[in-house]
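User: My instructor asked us to take a sequence, write out its structure as tokens, and then describe one feature of it. I'm not sure where to start. Here is the sequence I was given:
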Amino acid sequence: MSKRPGATSADLVPVGRVVKAHGIRGEIRIHPHDAEGLGILGADALVLGDSRGTETFRVRAARPRGRLVIVSLEGVADRDRAEALVGREVHQLREAMPPLGPGEYYWFQLEGLRVWTTRGRYLGVLRRFLDTGAHDVYVVDGPQGEVLIPAVPEVVTEVDLEGRRILVDPPPGLVETDAV
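Assistant: Let's start with the prediction itself. The structure tokens for your sequence are:
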């Protein structure tokens, strides 16, 4: 465990939240922000933070358990210490995130991108994601308010990280059809 004064928020990617202590040996339950727990499983270290600051912990072990990830951290050896971590946001260093395959993106890469339809209509900016179980849903804030876009290949036709935009082909009725 170490205090991490050198890491800035730009260096850190939120990957989950500590929701509960697990057992009596200091393990914690983390609810990952992605369904697979990619930023947690296989991590060498995690950064836990709250309003008081951040601490970096080396990961001894991590395993999936349903929708949660059970993690054992160096320096956290009992339930009392684990309970003190409940509620903290869990971060991974950006450069330590595992590489993805072609056409795969981390949510932090997509957040803030402009969303356009294939017909040239500006829908807004992708602000956050909803996990519906079946697939993610993009929450887009735009001129007409909030728009929910299913994050499926049939709808999301192009992601241009360099151009900072996402192109979507929404099914009829998903988006209001007033003027472009």
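For the description part of your assignment, you could build on this observation: The domain at 107-168 is CATH 2.30.30.240 (SH3 type barrels.). Try explaining in your own words what that tells you about the chain.
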